[in-house]
Design a protein that fits this description.
The chain contains 10 helices and 11 strands.
Length: 268
């Protein structure tokens, strides 16, 4: 099995070449390198791109994940499909520029994904890092809460769960928070899963990840309620009645994660 998808720039750049060989010959500023995956930045004809090269994870790693009841990351195909899914439902994310996957053995796939660089952005985690000491303008906080809830809600209710759903994986286009429609781009989707419906435990994990990673931002109970209204697109009264067990599991999971990571009690 082999599939490729190149935008016009890479079609021209790699004309007459094997795209897999061309992709794996690229080098650049390394951001993350593990045994089976390398992420780095390249500049081609004055444009920045992020490259993810996947080599087979191997049967040992494959079955290790299976026995731990985790779905293994076998290649770039998961992220590639997630990007197209998010584009389809109107959630800002990265734009794929080149993709390829070949092989039959799920533990030995060779694949690559190249995305256009998102410029002039800041992670939501960095943007609100000092909110507790230096609160933002109320209207800016409300805009960002709505934008985050809207993107997360569309993502989850369309059947996609992120599996690393923290506010550091939402990039804000600088300056867009001054408008009524802040641009928050979802990134790092290599572990994303797409189904008809997100399973309960993965749904809890994703939303708990957002809550855990925002606990130090000085949010109030009313901010949380505002998030829920934008996430569910329902009246708060209905949400609290219909989703009480789900919300309790989210809070419990987020607090346990906070204690595990920070070795202290959550601030809220």
């Amino acid at each position: 099995m082999q599939e490729t998808d190149l935008n016009p720039f890479f079609q021209k750049l790699w004309q007459g070449k094997d795209p897999f060989q061309a992709a794996f010959e690229l080098t650049g500023e390394s951001y993350r390198k593990v045994k089976s995956r390398h992420t780095f930045r390249v500049v081609l004809e004055n444009n920045g791109y992020f490259v993810k090269l996947h080599r087979g994870c191997g049967w040992k790693e494959y079955f290790k994940n299976i026995f731990q009841f985790k779905l293994p990351v076998t290649g770039a195909n998961q992220e590639y499909r997630a990007l197209h899914h998010l584009k389809k439902i109107g959630v800002p994310t990265m734009t794929p520029a080149a993709y390829g996957c070949k092989g039959i053995n799920p533990a030995g796939l060779t694949s690559f994904l190249i995305t256009e660089e998102l410029t002039d952005t800041i992670s939501l985690e960095d943007y609100c890092r000092d909110w507790k000491e230096n609160p933002p303008e109320t209207k800016i906080k409300y805009r960002l809460i709505h934008a985050l809830a809207d993107s997360a809600g569309k993502m989850h209710f369309s059947g996609l769960n992120h599996r690393d759903c923290y506010i550091c994986h939402f990039l804000l286009k600088k300056g867009s928070e001054q408008t009524n429609s802040p641009a928050l781009h979802v990134i790092d989707l290599h572990r994303a899963q797409i189904r008809k419906n997100v399973p309960y435990r993965y749904h809890v994990k994703d939303v708990a990840g957002l809550w855990f990673s925002a606990m130090d931002a000085g949010l109030t109970k009313h901010d949380i309620f505002r998030f829920l209204r934008s996430y569910y697109k329902k009246e708060l009264r209905m949400i609290l009645k219909e989703e009480s067990s789900f919300l309790a599991d989210i809070d419990k999971t987020a607090r346990a994660l906070y204690r595990k990571v920070h070795k202290k009690q959550p601030p809220v």
